[in-house]
Amino acid sequence: IFEDPGFGDQLLKTLDGKLATIESSWNAHCSLDTIVTIGLRILSLSKGAPSVEQVVSFLCRCREVASKWFEQLNKIFTASLGWKAKDATYDVECRHMAAMLQDSQDLSCLIRSSVILRETPPPELDSLPCDIRATLISVEKVRHRLEKRMLGLITKDPSGRNDAIQKSGSSLKMTGSWTENSKDKRRLQKHRDNNRG
After folding, report:
1. Stated pTM of the model
2. pLDDT tens digit string along 16-27?
3. CA dihedral 67, 73, 76, 77 (to 10 degrees)
4. Which ranges are annotated Polar residues under compositional bias (predicted)?
């Protein structure tokens, strides 16, 4: 049925209409997930109509909607908490870092939030308001200070990093341990099992 050009075109139009109706409400995130999944299926099965370009364009619009929702939620969060309070949650003295990052769950949360921040970078750091720019710089400094502790936790118990990677890309399956890279002590590499061919 997906190979029928008329069906694919009509389904894509229906999905596009649904996207337009949910665009203004981030509460419809489950609907967005569903239409993206169907859009990906249309793309994988498409043989002409709708064209790959049309489906890709639709998926890009879906991504724009999700990004817009992320920005809206971020504004709501920062307005309710305030940048200074948010910044203060990260800006602890070095002697307290171990308490803030002590297990795989803490590690997973930190890595996942870092991934989200990296996936949705601001357009230009210099164009941001001073308080937001200062917060982003502060977060980078905190991540740098936590780097050695993070590497130690990942080496000791990789489940936090593996969990964060899994949440960042549901098709990724991460298991096993990580070891320090012999060429670059600031990086880890997947532990290789010597018993495998």
Report:
1. 0.46
2. 999 999 888 877
3. -120
4. 165-180
